[in-house]
isochorismate synthase (Goodfellowiella coeruleoviolacea), 412 residues
Amino acid sequence: MATTIPAVQLSVRTRPVRVNHLLDQLPAPDGALAWVREGDGLVGWGELARFEISGPDRFAEAERWWREFVADLDVRDDVGLPGTGPVAFVSMSFADGPSPSVLVVPRVVVGRRGGTCWITELGGALEPTTPLPVRRPVDVRYTDGELSVSGYRAAVRTAVRRMRAGELAKIVLAHDLVATAAEPIDPRFLLSGLAAKYPSCWAYAVDGLVGATPELLLRKTGATVTSRLLAGTIWPGSAGEADHELAATLLGSAKDQREHAYAIGSLADALRPFCSTLSVPAQPGVLRLPNVSHLVSDVSGRLADDFSLFQLAEAVHPTAAVGGTPTNVAVPLISELEGMDRGRYAGPVGWIGGDGDGEFGVALRCAQVTGPVARLFAGCGVVADSDPDREVREAEAKLVPIRQALEGADRA
Ligand SMILES: C=C(O[C@@H]1C=C(C(=O)O)C=C[C@H]1O)C(=O)O
């Protein structure tokens, strides 16, 4: 466990400001923090405090650290909206293993919600600095990650065999791909590209994990909890359909409906004990993105008590959208068959406020950026009748957004 908390009582001041584009506020590539969708959300920079934790108790430990941190702040909030006041950006590891989860409390947060914009300064105002220009990655080259495409195909094949033998019903397997540029990669370039092309996704950056996810694990606003779950995927050209036929083909696919049913079942079962009411759609809809379309269910509930976002996240993570069914069989099998560390890919990512409300997405369609190297991830739900070649192509389709963001495709 690593933690830094300043000893004196910290001031936190939120006041209204005028800003145009949130992502344009980030002054430097290093330490860029973001959670932005359709122009709304939060960006942050200047690290004030950080907490790193790993292992099975990471959610409870993170919760305890954050509660202690906010207990002793001197807060003046002149705006009073979700995301004003103190905020930590959060990125949790997928697995219970040694990979760290991280909470970062920035010195400055700029937010927007509807027509209202604000700035929160923590620990006093930062000295203004000249913003560094956003740099496009130069000369990006790809190499295999820890699990190559052929290794991935073999892992899917093994999983299918084990499902046919009755060991489990669904597993989500992923692989990685390494992109290396000639110079350090600027996360702001990836964020602006992703946000422009995928406005309905949550574009995020926390401690070098950068992506745009279409999937919301949990949003807690007071006693209301909501979630957007995705499972079941089709992509243009996948089965020779015309574009307008994709949605109907996906809705009519028994395999995708089964994948979705496992995932929604796992989410609803995990949330129900915390809720006085829980509304789950009887049938999924279709979420259309430029690269893929997904079966989607928007779930909402009313919390029965004052449960925290970390407590809820611990209960629902990993849903069978990124883990499998049953979870206790699928999760160990993921690490056995992938043979790689997912790090924070497919873990909860987002923000939490001083009152414990906040939003966690599922960290998908992302890259872990370290200097000039980015490790990209994509995965697919596998069931007993999955075709390994098709899952390889599906993962390829899911890598398109982050690859294009790195390459600056479609950009001047
Ligand atoms: C695992 C990923 O995506 C998940 C798997 C999906 C599927 O198998 O159909 C769909 C959306 C996500 O829940 C990924 O993008 O890496």
Summary: The pocket of ISJ is lined by residues 172, 174, 215, 230-233, 259, 294, 321-322, 364-365, 377-381, 398 (CB under 6 Å).
